[in-house]
Write a structure and sequence with these properties.
Order of helices and strands: EEEEHHHH
Distance between the termini: 42 Å
Number of strands: 4
Strand order of the largest sheet: 1-2-3-4
Strand content: 25-35%
Helix content: 10-25%
Largest sheet: 4 strands, antiparallel
Shape: globular
């Protein structure tokens, strides 16, 4: 079982720490997770699907310590970001009204040219 984590987005600061959106690759299957870290602590969350694959909570997984070490190497130090980032704006994630909108007739298929 192999889990790899990459940084997707530094969402902002919150409660004295930094919230980060993660891409989680568990044996070739991708999902999202988060890491919240302060100068003294951190918490990683992954999808239930990942925890089902490993058969436990992420914190109890045998490879957890190595996963933390590799993830921490990728993060910008919390102290540095706390002075530069805005608070997380959750409203932009919560305003979804359930409707999907599409832009119609933006490109006419006849106008597309393929080059060889």
């Amino acid at each position: 079982m192999e889990i790899k984590i990459d940084i997707v987005d530094y969402m902002g600061k919150m409660d004295g720490g930094i919230l980060v959106l993660l891409s989680v690759n568990c044996d070739g299957s991708f999902s999202e997770g988060t890491i919240f870290y302060t100068p003294d602590n951190l918490v990683i969350t992954v999808s239930e699907e990942v925890e089902n694959k490993i058969g436990s909570k992420i914190e109890l997984w045998d490879g957890y310590q190595d996963l933390l070490t590799n993830t921490l190497k990728k993060l910008i130090p919390c102290e540095e970001l706390l002075t530069r980032m805005d608070e997380v704006d959750f409203s932009k994630y919560l305003e979804y009204d359930g409707e999907t909108g599409f832009v119609e007739d933006e490109v006419d298929p006849d106008d597309i040219e393929f080059k060889e």
